[in-house]
Amino acid sequence: MTEANPALAFVDAHCHIDLFPRPAHIVEQAQSQRIYTIAVTNAPSVFEHTARLAVGSKYVRAALGLHPELAHSHGHELEQFRRHLLQTRYIGEVGLDYTTPDKDIRQEQRRILATIAGWVDESGDKVITLHSRRAAADVLDVLKGIRARKILHWFSGTNKELERAIIEGYFFSINGAMMQSAKGRAVAHQIPQDRALTETDGPFVKEGASPASPLAVKVTITRLAEMWRVPVEHAKETVLQNFRRVLVRNSSPAL
Ligand SMILES: [Zn+2]
């Protein structure tokens, strides 16, 4: 099995499969539609459950996470995080969220992200999907120099922060909610085509009235094609090529 599977059709670089009412059904959907899906988790204590869901799947990968909004309540799970580190190449959802004005909570978020970033750097070969709401500059600071393939999920920072992230080699995963808001589209427009990926952030993001399952990336591809003024097939291929670059291993062949 190779990660850069040539039969790969679509990419969902950030989906909370474990939070859907029928997660096994979502795994089957990703499998049958050949949608390579990074199944992020919000706490180390739920990683094993998601890892079990992904067992045997060619297209679904469980990611080990500690969501910044849970940093304060679940910081004690860091040791558990460390224990699971060797079980996956994928890390997320991790990051910072400064919608809280509480300085102590922000500080705790930074401490946890810095600890995780250190472990990621030791491995040198992880793929990390990052949350950076109102905190992009600090996320970039904490991750500075860390060896990993870095994906900023649902980026909503300033143009200056975006430019810096581009220079520092980040990829950006774009979802349906971004493409439906004027601000999100403005951000998406600034993202270079060769750094763009698709995601759903389901079930938090909705597609129509339902939670966005990995299938919703097809709609996002269509919207990206319109924005880029290219045929849909071209946009699809661009995102696949970008994702293949994310998956390339630093030293050894893809697993
Ligand atoms: Zn998320």
What secondary-structure arrangement, pairings included, does this model have?
Elements: E1 10-15, H1 23-32, E2 35-39, H2 47-54, E3 60-62, H3 71-74, H4 78-84, E4 90-95, H5 103-123, E5 127-131, H6 136-143, E6 149-153, H7 159-167, E7 171-174, H8 176-180, H9 182-190, E8 196-198, E9 206-207, E10 210-211, H10 217-228, H11 232-247
Parallel strand pairs: 1-2, 2-3, 4-5, 5-6, 6-7, 7-8
Antiparallel strand pairs: 9-10
Helix pairs in contact: 5-6, 10-11
The chain binds zinc ion (ZN).
Write a structural description.
- With 255 residues, this protein is an alpha/beta fold.
- It has one domain (10-247): TIM Barrel (Alpha-Beta Barrel).
- The protein is built from eleven helices and ten strands.
- The chain has helices spanning 23-32, 47-54, 71-74, 78-84, 103-123, 136-143, 159-167, 176-180, 182-190, 217-228, 232-247; strands spanning 10-15, 35-39, 60-62, 90-95, 127-131, 149-153, 171-174, 196-198, 206-207, 210-211.
- The strands form three sheets. The protein has a five-stranded parallel β-sheet with strand order 4-5-6-7-8, sandwiched between helices. The protein has a three-stranded parallel β-sheet with strand order 1-2-3. A two-stranded antiparallel sheet has the order 9-10.
- Helix 5 packs parallel to helix 6 (136-143) and helix 10 (217-228) crosses helix 11 (232-247).
- The longest helix has 21 residues, at 103-123.
- It starts with 9 loop residues before the first strand and ends in an 8-residue tail after the last helix.
- The model has no long low-confidence stretch (mean pLDDT 94).
- The chain binds zinc ion.
- Zinc ion (ZN) binds next to loops.
